[in-house]
Structure prediction request, 607 residues.
Amino acid sequence: MKNLILLALLCACAAAPAATGPAASAPAAAAPTAADAKAFVEKVGPELRAAGIKSSTAQWIQNTYINDDTDRAASQANEAALALQTQAVKDAARFKGVTGIDDATARMLENLRVRGAGPSDAAHRMELTTLGTKLSGTYGKGKWCGPDGKKECRDLEQLSQLMAKSHDSAALLDAWAGWHTISKPMRPLFARRVELLNEGAREIGYANEGDRWRSGYELTPDAFEKETDRLWAQVKPLYDDLHCYVRAQLQKTYGKDQVKDAAPIPAHLLGNMWAQEWTNIYPLVEPYPGQTSLDVDAALVAQKWDWKKMVQTGEAFYTSLGLDPLPETFWQRSMFLKPRDREVICHASAWDVQNDNDLRIKMCIKPNEESLETIHHELGHNYYQHYHYQLPYLLQGGAHDGFHEAIGDSIVLSMTPGYLKQLGLIAQVPADEKGLIDVQLKDALTRVAFLPFGLLIDKWRWDVFSGKIQPADYNKSWWELRRKYQGLEAPLPRSEEDFDPGAKFHVAANVPYTRYFLARILQFQFHRAMCQAAGFKGPLHECSIYGNKAAGARLRAMLELGRSKPWPEALFAMTGQREMDGSALLDYFAPLQKWLKEQNAGQKCGW
Ligand code: X8Z
Ligand code: ZN
Prediction:
């Protein structure tokens, strides 16, 4: 996304920073007024924007061409932007308690704090941005070349491909273990970055960086944590039902010696490097084999869909809702495919590099369903950017970061079998109860399986930032959480020589992750609201808003708000609700949940 790395550094914070800025300590300065506050945001917004454009330009270049020079340039540009941001947050502290500030200025001051700050010590700040570039570059360049380094080296794309398609547990284990070696060298760098991030957070009045991250949601850090637990409690029973069914099916392929009764599932058998989404094992767990083919991957390959057709199909969905076409520069400047001749960060992201509708995606597109969905996800970010870039800089962004993540995903929920048939990607729309269960199970492997993973990454990082988890326990505590929330276990003995969290992009790149958990909840709320706006009356899982201008208008109105209002207001405008709520997700999956309970009857579920 725009300013991915910098945003990661700057993300989230809201409590009042300590009044340490030069203006606050200047002797006998006149008390600041509301007019001063307005003048301040009008001055500092464009300055931050200019520095942000320099840093996102350097990051774009580094992300699409990793080498020592681009690393250095990105680290320097990030440091300059962070220095300005840090000073601005400290300067803004003098407006705390000033009365009569207009709503827009107050909101900009609040958003400024939410963006956070780095250490005031320039050397520490430079160290921080250099570590950030190095860690994300290490991830981007990661390869597994066999235990003696002599095998043909494979990157994450190749290893993920194997994890997706192979059912040979030895090959899966090799790919899993191999990728998890790339993060071992990250451990000391990561630990140092934690110290530096905490230093910056403490200087502006937070207990630690995790508190700062949790302060970006109009709630105190504690209240926000409770809110995520409340949402998880709503949807956990459905996850538990899915886990139970999937484990029983995996036992049929891998045997009970590998997949044990009433125990966590080994993490290499779920079709994905992190077992975060289980879509790829659908052929192993398909409820009614032979009923209906939902094999979109095969259709994309057979019909020779290339990246361009896939991205154009994504854009066509958004324009069918009455939203604008993508700018011509999107097609010229994006990175759609993995280049053959240089190192890049393949992890998908969406950017507005120059903050003037300079929209781009950066992806290594493959002709498969996962890429097709990710394209729609990334375009959701681009459309948010498109509709908020003309707001003052400090009012831009998602209502909260989970909103930004949920837009494209809510569009993916409209890619129903009916819509896929229209695209020629499946032959028939499953018409009976069995077909519906097939479709829903496949969907749940993507969307429900993800929920605990979406939650646990930051549970781990919040405790790392607070010091509750010490470096000596990084890996142990990681696996405790993966066991507790996902019901998974490491397929091999692990030790503190390993640093398994770093094998996940967002940990290496310092991108907060709770946003994706929230997005999995919100996307169903958005979908329900847009279906209502479209006048759809049937069950939620049958609704597609493709082509519906009324649904598009509802979406556009929320995108145009950017971050100008507290998120409950944006949510209310979109859905008529002021709270995040798992009930739309549960409604959507109601037929599947009933079926899973029947299948699991008599099984010993849980772990
Ligand atoms: O990182 C992403 C997007 C970019 S914002 C591709 N996602 C998370 C992940 O890959 O881990 C989307 C789903 C969760
Ligand atoms: Zn995203």
